[in-house]
Amino acid sequence: MFDALSHLYTSTAPRAALEAGRAAGVHNVLLAGENEAGWSAQSALAGPSVHLAYGYHPWHTAGAIDAEILAAALPRLSEPVAIGEIGLDGSGRHRERLATQEAAFLAQLDLARQRDLPVVLHIVRAHGAALACVDRCQAPPGIVHGFSGSSEVAEEWLRRGFLLSFGHLVCNKQAKRARIAASQVPLERLLVESDSPGGFESPAGINQVLASLSSLRSEPVAVLMRETAANARRLLRLQP
């Protein structure tokens, strides 16, 4: 299995959590960045089954300078397979910083375009603006993580070549929009994630996500395991 998004480097025992995931059958994990403070911790965990994406999460952005700092840091870090977690968050108190977030998002999208790397996106209550940014920058497609939007919004991301990743939210029967979208995404564009340690404690949590998706989509868990892992490898250009 392939966990398409985790922040385990922020946990108190990241290697133990990775081992718990492996014991549960999760043999590949993508660690997504949040800010400069965590990049070295991510880099230290890199390995054949631990893949890295660096970026400034929209909660931690300072503006376009973020991309300059990231570009300067990359030579001293383990090789990334993507840029992220980047994006826009229009929820609650974050909404007042949308202009700053957008400047950082555009600059990091441009960096991904320059380096020909897929992007890992955090988009909350700002899908229209985020889609406009992606169109403007013509960045490589990537992952919309923790997707919680409508089927109509999902179609817009799919049309641009993105894959949609689903996590703990689809296990909640009250999350109707996310569950409807998850039931309709083409299998070849579907990913699963733990978002650990926030969503689940370890990558092992994607077993629960897969079980929920199986009930929503009427596809066997084994098929979902195989295909979501293949999708992640294909997007991130990893060897089988």
Characterise this structure:
With 240 residues, the protein is α/β, with parallel strands linked by helices. The protein has a single domain, classed as TIM Barrel. 43% of the residues lie in helices and 16% in strands. The chain has nine helices and eight strands. The chain has an eight-stranded parallel β-sheet, with helices on both faces. α3 runs parallel beside α4 and α4 packs parallel to α5. The chain is globular.
User: How helical, in percent, are the residues?
Assistant: 40-55%
Residue fraction in strands: 15-25%
Through-space gap between termini: 12 Å
What strand line-up does the widest sheet have? 1-2-3-4-5-6-7-8
- Please give the count of helices: 9
The fourth-level CATH homologous superfamily is: Metal-dependent hydrolases
Structural class by secondary-structure content: alpha/beta
Average pLDDT, rounded to a whole number, is 97
Quick one: CATH class? Alpha Beta
Descriptive labels:
240 residues, alpha/beta, TIM Barrel, 8-stranded parallel beta sheet, 9 helices, 16% strand
Describe this structure in a few short sentences.
43% of the residues lie in helices and 16% in strands.
Give the topology.
Elements lengths: L1 E5 L7 H10 L4 E5 L3 H9 L5 E5 L10 H9 L8 E8 L8 H18 L3 E6 L2 H11 L5 E2 L6 H9 L3 E4 L9 H9 L5 E3 L13 H12 L3 H16 L4
Parallel strand pairs: 1-2, 2-3, 3-4, 4-5, 5-6, 6-7, 7-8
Helix pairs in contact: 3-4, 4-5
